[in-house]
């Protein structure tokens, strides 16, 4: 496990780790305190939308352009373990994202309960939150994949804005369809994660042979 973490650290830098491991979770946890609302679902909507935007934008600074033909992989070509290092880093990053949003959502329940001692959390709320988690995961992973084929911060910001907007619109679908969205959202989220790693790894392996389009 230590080796896997070292693979991830190859791509990250101290400021990134400070922001994504500490400042982002802390900022999300402050939402139910700062925002004038006591509704767990509304707070969770804001939290997941902001999480999606931040994750896509931040992903550019560690993996941006990695899947381009002229990507930044030259230093990895000196080792046969290069592709495995990239794959491990991508997977560890997805695990970090999942743990972050799960911890934040669980904390929202406690914080909202403390702020509003009469707050009730009907089962429907938890179905909606699970929908949001899966849909947010899909947009985050899909946005991350697209960013890894781009090479400018402006383009990355554009993708982040589009995915954030679509994530915001999906809240209406969550409220309307509820449990019926769970399976499709889970399939889309899993497909985005698997295909994202596969597409990047395909480009990484091709780069070892300098394959051209």
Structure description:
This protein is mainly α and 213 residues long. 77% of the residues lie in helices and 0% in strands. It contains seven helices and no strands. The protein has helices spanning 2-11, 14-34, 40-63, 82-115, 123-147, 153-177, 182-207. Helix 3 runs antiparallel to helix 4 (82-115) and helix 5 (123-147) packs parallel to helix 7. The radius of gyration is 18 Å and the shape is globular. It starts with a helix and ends in a 6-residue tail after the last helix.
Task: Explain briefly what this protein structure is.
The chain is mainly alpha-helical.
Q: C-alpha Rg, in Å?
A: 18 Å
Strand content: under 5%
Q: Helix- and strand-based class?
A: mainly alpha
Rounded mean pLDDT is 82
The helix tally amounts to 7
- Give me the count of strands: 0
* Ends distance: 36 Å
Spell the H/E element sequence. Answer: HHHHHHH
Helical content class:
over 70%
In this structure, how is the largest beta sheet organized?
none
Question: What order do the helices and strands come in, and which of them pair?
Answer:
Elements: H1 2-11, H2 14-34, H3 40-63, H4 82-115, H5 123-147, H6 153-177, H7 182-207
Helix pairs in contact: 1-4, 2-3, 2-4, 3-4, 3-5, 3-6, 4-5, 4-7, 5-6, 5-7
Features of the shown structure:
213 residues, mainly alpha, 7 helices
């Amino acid at each position: 496990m230590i080796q896997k973490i070292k693979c991830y650290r190859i791509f990250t830098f101290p400021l990134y780790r400070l922001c994504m491991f500490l400042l982002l979770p802390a900022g999300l946890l402050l939402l139910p305190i700062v925002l004038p609302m006591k509704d767990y679902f509304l707070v969770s909507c804001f939290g997941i939308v902001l999480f999606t935007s931040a994750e896509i934008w931040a992903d550019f600074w560690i993996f941006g352009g990695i899947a381009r033909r002229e990507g930044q992989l030259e230093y990895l070509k000196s080792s046969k373990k290069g592709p495995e290092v990239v794959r491990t880093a991508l997977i560890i990053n997805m695990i970090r994202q999942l743990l972050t949003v799960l911890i934040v959502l669980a904390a929202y329940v406690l914080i909202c309960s403390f702020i509003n001692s009469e707050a009730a959390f009907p089962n429907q709320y938890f179905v909606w939150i699970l929908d949001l988690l899966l849909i947010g995961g899909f947009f985050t992973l899909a946005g991350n994949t697209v960013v890894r084929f781009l090479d400018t911060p402006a383009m990355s910001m554009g993708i982040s804005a589009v995915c954030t907007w679509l994530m915001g619109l999906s809240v209406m679908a969550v409220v309307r369809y509820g449990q019926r969205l769970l399976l499709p959202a889970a399939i889309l989220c899993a497909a985005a994660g698997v295909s994202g790693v596969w597409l990047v790894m395909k480009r990484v392996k091709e780069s070892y042979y300098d394959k051209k389009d």
